[in-house]
């Protein structure tokens, strides 16, 4: 209720509502200090028409409000949470795809609350021509750069808008890390479109090769009759299999389950742990063995990740409302 009221008062859009996320009740009704929402900037109307997505579309949406960065930052700061995801629709009608607008939001939030962890789930900023836009956002001061691959390579043109592409999305993730090497990168795949087992595995390998550290897998749920049909509902044990497979490939965290979405709240407990670990590595003396507690392989086993999450949750309980948001 607190987040819903804040959104209404600020007239902000969320992907939680626009995309009919199945976790909206769980995320928004969490206890004070832990509730979260994924804020959608650049308006609520997309210039693309992916066949799985419920966000409304238009070739020429209204231009975003120039004061949106300030309004968004003030709203986020008033919620007293420490981890926020900022995402957007595609804006192919804007020369830079909305990248500078994105960066203004990030910079202003960091001005108001420097300690806040920011994840940006971005579009491709007009494909291969949008790498300058990727650089603009990646260098704005965020902590996590997320961009979703959505599906396996074979099904890209079936599932996504024709202006999106598998290699273009890989290029976005690679370029973000090239611009700011200490960024955590993250991507997501939706299952149930008719993908094959080896195609899922190859997609995960491609993401690791691109330096992606966080990977999520969730089930496609048809928003309406006008959207593409569900080809297959995967049983829970298959999601467990892909979680284990991803960890064995070297991802630092894999969230996998029927209702998992790229911004699902539970993953942020692990994200906070990874970010704290990254900070320790960056600021510790080179000779200090305490600089990082990851195993030499740089990979947490599920047991190690669970232990890390438990310690983060304990810290959250001690810190009260100002603790990190386990989104």
Automatic annotation (TrEMBL):
Source organism of this protein record: Haptolina ericina
Record-linked Pfam families: Radical_SAM
High-level lineage: Eukaryota, Haptista, Haptophyta, Prymnesiophyceae, Prymnesiales
Catalytic activity: [[Fe-S] cluster scaffold protein carrying a second [4Fe-4S](2+) cluster] + N(6)-octanoyl-L-lysyl-[protein] + 2 oxidized [2Fe-2S]-[ferredoxin] + 2 S-adenosyl-L-methionine + 4 H(+) = [[Fe-S] cluster scaffold protein] + N(6)-[(R)-dihydrolipoyl]-L-lysyl-[protein] + 4 Fe(3+) + 2 hydrogen sulfide + 2 5'-deoxyadenosine + 2 L-methionine + 2 reduced [2Fe-2S]-[ferredoxin]
UniProt signal peptide: none
SMART domains, per the entry: Elp3
Documented EC number(s): 2.8.1.8
GO terms classed as biological process: protein lipoylation
Pathway in which this enzyme or protein is active: Protein modification; protein lipoylation via endogenous pathway; protein N(6)-(lipoyl)lysine from octanoyl-[acyl-carrier-protein]: step 2/2
Family, per entry: Belongs to the radical SAM superfamily. Lipoyl synthase family.
Positions bound to [4Fe-4S] cluster 1: 16, 21, 27, 263
Cofactor(s) the record lists: [4Fe-4S] cluster
Record keyword Metal-binding present: yes
Cofactor info, note text: Binds 2 [4Fe-4S] clusters per subunit. One cluster is coordinated with 3 cysteines and an exchangeable S-adenosyl-L-methionine.
Subcellular location: Mitochondrion
Record-annotated Radical SAM core domain positions: 29-252
PANTHER family with a match to the protein in the record: LIPOYL SYNTHASE, LIPOYL SYNTHASE, MITOCHONDRIAL
Residues annotated to bind [4Fe-4S] cluster 2: 46, 50, 53
UniProt keyword list: 4Fe-4S, Iron, Iron-sulfur, Metal-binding, Mitochondrion, S-adenosyl-L-methionine, Transferase
Gene Ontology MF term list: 4 iron, 4 sulfur cluster binding; lipoate synthase activity; metal ion binding
GO CC entries: mitochondrion
HAMAP family (UniProt xref): Lipoyl_synth (MF_00206)
Listed PROSITE patterns: RADICAL_SAM
Protein name (Swiss-Prot/TrEMBL): Lipoyl synthase, mitochondrial
Keyword Ion transport tagged: no
Transmembrane segments: none
């Amino acid at each position: 209720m607190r987040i819903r009221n804040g959104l209404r008062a600020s007239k902000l859009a969320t992907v939680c509502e626009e995309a009919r996320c199945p976790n909206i009740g769980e995320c928004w009704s969490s206890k004070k200090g832990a509730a979260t929402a994924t804020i959608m900037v650049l308006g609520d109307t997309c210039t693309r028409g992916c066949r799985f997505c419920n966000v409304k579309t238009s070739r020429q949406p209204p231009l975003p409000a120039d004061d949106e960065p300030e309004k968004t930052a003030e709203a986020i700061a008033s919620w007293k949470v420490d981890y926020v995801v900022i995402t957007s629709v595609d804006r192919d009608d804007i020369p830079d795809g909305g990248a500078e607008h994105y960066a203004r939001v990030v910079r202003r939030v960091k001005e108001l609350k420097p300690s806040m962890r920011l994840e940006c789930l971005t579009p491709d900023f007009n494909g291969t021509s949008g790498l300058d836009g990727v650089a603009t956002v990646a260098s704005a001061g965020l902590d996590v750069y997320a961009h979703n691959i959505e599906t396996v390579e074979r099904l890209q043109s079936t599932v996504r808008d024709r202006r999106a592409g598998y290699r273009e999305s890989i290029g976005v993730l690679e370029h973000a890390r090239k611009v700011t090497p200490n960024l955590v990168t993250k991507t997501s795949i939706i299952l149930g479109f008719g993908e094959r087992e080896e195609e899922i595995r190859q997609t995960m390998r491609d993401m690791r090769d691109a330096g992606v550290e966080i990977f999520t897998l969730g089930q496609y749920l048809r928003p309406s009759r006008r959207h593409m049909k569900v080809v297959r509902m995967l049983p829970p044990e298959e999601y467990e299999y892909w979680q284990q497979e991803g960890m064995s490939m070297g991802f630092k965290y894999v969230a996998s389950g029927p209702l998992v979405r790229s911004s699902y709240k539970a993953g942020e407990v692990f994200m906070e742990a990874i970010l704290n670990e990254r900070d320790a590595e960056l600021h510790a003396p080179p000779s200090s063995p305490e600089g990082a507690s990851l195993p030499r392989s740089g990979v947490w086993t599920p047991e190690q990740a669970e232990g890390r999450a438990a310690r983060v949750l304990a810290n959250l309980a001690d810190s009260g409302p100002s603790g990190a948001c386990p989104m």
